Structures are given as structure tokens and as C-alpha cells.
Predict the structure.
Amino acid sequence: MAASTRERGLEAAVQVLGAEGVRALSHARVDERAGLPAGSTSNWFRTRRALLGGVVEWIAERERSDFDPAAMPAVTGPEGLIEGLCAMVELQAGTFALRTRARYALFLELADDPQLGEPLRQQRREFEQWTEVLVKAVGIADPVPATRALMALLDGLLLHRLTVDPELDIRPAIDRAVHGLVGPCRC
């Protein structure tokens, strides 16, 4: 089934944001990128703010779908957590790199706009809650600060991958962090 005009416009808007940044986002650029007739995107999103809101919700929906906890393999120990976190960063820096760049650009652009940025912040909170469940499952003490530390590390590694070193080996840092949080083996 062919994507709707609205869907094509949102996909193109994410591409524009991810490749060119927030300042490049316009209805005309989105129409051009999507191969839509001029004015198509503005039929769905009358203002730039409405377009930004549509993109924010679209990204949050896609991330919920692509990273659905119910579809993820069970994490049974520190090595499983390490594998899962590495896979998550690899996907976000690879397959979903443009979307990840767009999300970061929107987080920065909308930091002072509680209403417009809320779907992204809600998606982040849901991901933190899911990660906290995994952190608890592998026996890491103080799961809330441990989760926040891991999330900050992942954000840093992901940002570094997207901006500085696309070939960065992320596994050693994630391995060290998880094993440091687990503590010595009590075998």
C-alpha cells in the first residue's frame, strides 16, 4: 500500500531535519524531498509549528514501534544487557541515523517548548522505564541512578557516533559501565 501524502511528508520532514537541521525545515523543502506537489505538506500542517508537532509525534510513534519492549528478546544477565544496549546504539546510529539526528535537533530546538516537545520527552521517559526494568533484572543496585547513568552514556556514544567517529567501537564503554554497575561477581 502506498504511503499517504501526510506520511510521505512526515518521512521527508525527518530526512530534512536529520540531514540539514531545524533551520532547513520548511513546507517547500518537505514537499520537494517527498516528491509531492507544492503545498501538499501545508495542507496537513498549516504552520511550521504544526509541522514540527507532526514530526515530533511521528518520531515518537516510530520509535515506540521499532523499539517495542514486548518484541525485544529477554535480557537475563549483564551480557544480555550489554548486547541489547549495543544493538540499540547500532540501530540508532545506522539504520535510523537520520531519525536520530532529527530527534536530537528537535530536543534542542524544543527544549523551551514544553507542549511541542512533550511526545519526545514522553517517549524518552518510557524508554528509561523499560531500561530500568532491564537494569533491575540483571541485579544492578540503585536502578534509577544506574539507568540514568547508562542512558547518559548511550546518548554520548550515540552522539559521538553520529558527529565525530562513525566507526567508534561502543562495546568496551558499555561493557565497562554495565560491569561497573553490576559490581563484583558474588558467585
About this structure: The mean pLDDT is 91. The domain at 5-182 is CATH 1.10.357.10 (Tetracycline Repressor; domain 2). The longest helix spans residues 143-163.
